[in-house]
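User: Could you go from structure to sequence for me? I need the amino acid at each position, not a summary. Structure tokens:
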């Protein structure tokens, strides 16, 4: 069945019959029907325009929503990348600090070992000097004992007492070598 428009009603003509409807009344009714259909057609057209506008706005908002979703995904991805980069950088800084600390510890350990070796060398040098000095003193003492005593010289007992004093002095006086 075909859709009837207000124009179809306006141009529709009926056959005249003997016992038919009142023509003026039918024409009035048709005029009212035409006016109602035209109003309805305008209202439907307005609603269709509004629906089209709303569909366009929905489409626009869906595009905005998709854009916002993409932006959020990109922002999340960027935040994750920045976070990962920060963690990598922090790990690198920690590793560099650990390596630097290990180098410092190794350097201090080496310096301490060097200081111990130097201290040991100093102790050995002091012992050597003490031994050489003792040997020198003993040699001089032996020479003194071999030397004849002139008149008025000190006796052997006095020499022995002096030797004990000298030995006591050599034991109490320590030579420190730096």
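Assistant: Here is the amino acid at each position, in order:
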């Amino acid at each position: 069945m075909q859709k009837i428009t207000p124009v179809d009603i306006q141009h529709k003509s009926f056959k005249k019959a003997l016992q038919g409807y009142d023509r003026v009344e039918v024409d009035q009714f048709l005029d009212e029907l035409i006016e109602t259909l035209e109003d309805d057609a305008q209202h439907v057209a307005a609603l269709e325009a509004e629906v089209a506008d709303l569909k366009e706005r929905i489409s626009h908002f869906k595009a905005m929503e998709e854009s916002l979703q993409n932006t959020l995904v990109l922002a999340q991805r960027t935040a994750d990348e920045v976070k990962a980069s920060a963690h990598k950088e922090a790990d690198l800084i920690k590793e560099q600090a650990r390596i630097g600390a290990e180098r410092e510890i190794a350097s201090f350990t080496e310096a301490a070992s060097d200081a111990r070796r130097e201290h040991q060398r100093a102790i050995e040098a002091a012992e050597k000097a003490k031994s050489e000095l003792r040997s020198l003193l003993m040699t001089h003492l032996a020479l003194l004992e071999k030397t004849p005593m002139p008149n008025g010289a000190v006796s052997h007992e006095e020499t022995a007492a002096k030797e004990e004093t000298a030995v006591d002095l050599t034991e109490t006086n320590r030579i420190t070598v730096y």
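One structural detail worth keeping in mind: Helices lie at 6-11, 23-146, 156-172.
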